[in-house]
Design a protein that fits this description.
This protein has ten helices and 14 strands. With 310 residues, it is of the alpha/beta class. It is globular and about 65 Å long. The two termini are 17 Å apart. The mean pLDDT is 94.
Length: 310
C-alpha cells in the first residue's frame, strides 16, 4: 500500500491529510485558504509545509515514503499555490485524471504535487455559465455506479447543484452562495440578534414556512420577516433559525426542480443537507438519498485517490 498526502484547499481553510491509499491516518486543519492569503501566498506555503512535516514526523514517515501529494480546490485558483485553467464539461473521472498537473514546489517539499483542475460550464448566456474548484473531487468521492442520471446537491459555503449524466460525467451545474449568505446575514445585518448559528435543532414546520414564504414573496421581503417573527410573534431560536434556513435554501430547491430526473443525492454540511432533504421530501416526488457525515467527511480524500488512479 502506498502513502500519500492529500490537500483539500478551501477559500478560508485548508485540510492536509496523511493517507494509506484511501484510508486517512491523520489530518491537520489550517485556518488559512486561498482567499485569506491574497497578499501573502508564502503564508499558505509555510502553513502547508509545516502541516506536511508534522504529519510525517508524528507518523514516523519521511518524504521518501510518500508517492505524491494530491491537491484540489481553491489551491488551483488564481489565489492559490498553482493557478490552473478549468476543464470544460462534460467531465468525468477519466477527463479529470488526464488533466491533472504535476508540479514540484521545492519551497514546500521535494515530493511532487498532483493538482486536480476545476470544472466549468461555458454556455450561451450568464445563466448557463458556471465554475467549480474542489466540488468535482468531492463528487467523485461520493459517486457510485448505482447513482446514474441524477442530481447531486453539495451544500456548503458555495453550494453546488450538479446534473450527472448516465455516463457518470458532470454535465451541468449551478453555484449558490448559500453558506456565505448564512454567515454574512447572521453576522452583519439587523438579524444578528435573531439568528443563532449554534442552534442544533431544526423546526421542520418553520423550515417549510420559510421556504414557502420566500417562494411566494422573494428573499428580500422574507428575510425581514425573521425579525418580525422574533419581535412580534416571540418565535424561539430554533423556529427563527429554521425559518431563515428555509428562505436561504429556496433557490437550491428551485435549481433541483429544473431537472426531470428521478433521484437526488445530498452531501455537504450536516444541517444544510438535512434541511434541504426535508424540504425536497415535502415538495418533490423524487427519490432523496442523504449521505452520512462519514461519507461526506471522506469524500475529498476518496475523490483525489479515484482521480489520481483514473
Amino acid at each position: 500500500m502506498a502513502h500519500y498526502i492529500t490537500i483539500d484547499g478551501g477559500t478560508s481553510n485548508t485540510r492536509v491529510s496523511l493517507t494509506r491509499d484511501e484510508d486517512v491516518i491523520s489530518t491537520l486543519r489550517i485556518s488559512l485558504g486561498a482567499f485569506s492569503v491574497l497578499d501573502n501566498k508564502s503564508a499558505l506555503k509555510e502553513a502547508i509545509k509545516s502541516a506536511i512535516d508534522s504529519l510525517l514526523s508524528n507518523s514516523k514517515k519521511s518524504y521518501e515514503d510518500i508517492e505524491c501529494i494530491l491537491a484540489s480546490g481553491m489551491i488551483t485558483s488564481e489565489f492559490g499555490l498553482c493557478p490552473l485553467d478549468h476543464i470544460n464539461v462534460p467531465a468525468g473521472l477519466g477527463k479529470l485524471h488526464q488533466n491533472m498537473e504535476r508540479v514540484i514546489l521545492d519551497e514546500i517539499c521535494p515530493v511532487p504535487f498532483m493538482f486536480v483542475r476545476g470544472v466549468k460550464c461555458i454556455g450561451d448566456s450568464l445563466e448557463d455559465t458556471d465554475m467549480m474548484r474542489g466540488e468535482e473531487t468531492e463528487l467523485m468521492g461520493i459517486m457510485t455506479d448505482s447513482e446514474r442520471d441524477c442530481i447531486y446537491i453539495l451544500p456548503g459555503s458555495h453550494s453546488k447543484v450538479i446534473r450527472v449524466n448516465p455516463d457518470r460525467e458532470i454535465e451541468t451545474f449551478s453555484t449558490l452562495l448559500t453558506g456565505e449568505m448564512v454567515k454574512a446575514i447572521s453576522d452583519d445585518t439587523i438579524l444578528k440578534d435573531a439568528i443563532d448559528l449554534k442552534c442544533k435543532n431544526i423546526d421542520y414546520e418553520y423550515l417549510l414556512k420559510g421556504y414557502k414564504f420566500c417562494k411566494e414573496h422573494g428573499i428580500n421581503k422574507s428575510l425581514f420577516k425573521v425579525r418580525i417573527l422574533k419581535n412580534v410573534f416571540s418565535a424561539g431560536s430554533s423556529q427563527l433559525y429554521s425559518f431563515f434556513l428555509g428562505i436561504i435554501l429556496t433557490d437550491e430547491i428551485k435549481e433541483v426542480e429544473k431537472y426531470d430526473v428521478p433521484l437526488v443525492v445530498i452531501g455537504g454540511k450536516h444541517q444544510l443537507k438535512e434541511a434541504t432533504a426535508a424540504i425536497l421530501r415535502e415538495v418533490s416526488s423524487k427519490e432523496i438519498i442523504v449521505l452520512s457525515d462519514e461519507q461526506v467527511d471522506q469524500s475529498v480524500t476518496k475523490g483525489l485517490m479515484k482521480i489520481y488512479k483514473g
